[in-house]
Amino acid sequence: MKTFRKDFFWGGATAANQFEGAWNVDGKGPSVSDMCTTGSKDTPKRITATIEENTLYPSHEAIDFYHHYKEDIKLFADMGFNVFRFSIAWTRIFPTGMEKEPNEAGLKFYDNVIDECRKYNIEPFITISHYEMPYALVEKYNGWYGRECIELFERYCHAIFDRYKDKVVYWLTFNEINAGTMPMGNVLSLGTVQGYTGPITGVKDDPKIRYQALHHQFVASARVVKYAHENYPQFKMGNMICFMTTYPATCKPDDMLKAQREMRMKNWFCSDIMVRGYYPEYADRYFEENDINIKMEEGDLEILKEGTVDFYTFSYYMSICASTDENEKLTGGNLMGGVKNPYLEASDWGWQIDPKGLRWTLNSIYDRYHIPMMVVENGLGALDTVEADGSINDDYRIDYLRKHILEMKEAVKDGVDLMGYTPWGCIDLVSASTGEMAKRYGFIYVDKHDDGTGTLSRSKKKSFDWFKSVIESNGENI
Ligand code: BG6
Q: Is the pTM above the cut of 0.90?
């Protein structure tokens, strides 16, 4: 029976804007995330046009990885990581996104981070854009709605590819690119919030703008993938999808069809383009019914074909249901919620926990594309308690991760070609949806709190040693 590959990637995942801090240090410019205040489960984060005094912006200090990277990477190495997924902040390299030349101090910082990983034989696994478009591009072009961003993104990618060509192999172009198929994508990934200030849930959504902006991201991604393949054949280029597995709430044919529609436009649409190289037929009907006419330039459809990715990656936290019955109970979620599944329990933030859904999802994706895959985010956002003796007994997290790893193993037995697993927020960091610190995912606790206080000291949770032994045994000792 098959089991995890010998060279399986075990590690963790992070994003620059959620853990680096040092938001305006060494020439870095502000990104959309830097303009977002803190929020909570009940109060949405706000976007401000300028930095307000006496207001907390969680990305500004975050957990200050910028000044703690040596200590943090050493802890990852102690845990046995052989891979570390992190993102490069576009605004460290091009502070407004529009400069002609890259910022040397920014490039140097990532040299240091990559070298530190390599020192411990940790493979750097880089997300090029993770929810942090330069704010200057929001102001000037309404974010990705402006076609100009394609070239600016290419300039950024060429700079980092050319600089790190000898020490990085794995690249993901856009984190959770399918965020752009949902209203939340305006803030998170597309930056289509020009002139908007206020709660992130209050952005006026226009699907015409959203899908146009998303098209520009597809073209940008394909162009840089093609550039990488032509210039650096050793590179392996991947996509990244937020997979929100959607079951029909009942076997009623209408529910079946509704679930299929949602699966297509929310989960499959982006990867159909990035893996297969063309807009899927089912999207035509959706565009027609929603009066969406994407403006394309000559060569766009060709480049999508020429810039397809080498492997498929995704985040998986939960599943939801789709129903045609409007009275069904609803549940929360990261990019979107859905109808409640009576067979599942949920986290404190209302995200339904569904390990078997991960097996189902891995099998479905592999059936469709037949290329190597990797789970690059998964985990439980939970409140942790520090005991009087300093210990943190996060058995609930161990339980969540264990069940998901066991289901990944089943999927491998089912025939899926799985490259690795990098649980989200391997070290506590700022929550993307709420801006909280209290929603923790880490194996490593960081003394930093929602009000911005804390010593920033790092300590191991119970899950640290557990995950270390999982890694040592390549997933056998679980
Ligand atoms: C994913 C994002 O959607 O979910 C991460 O790629 C994010 O950036 C993660 O942090 C968990 O979501 P949250 O809202 O709990 O931080």
A: yes
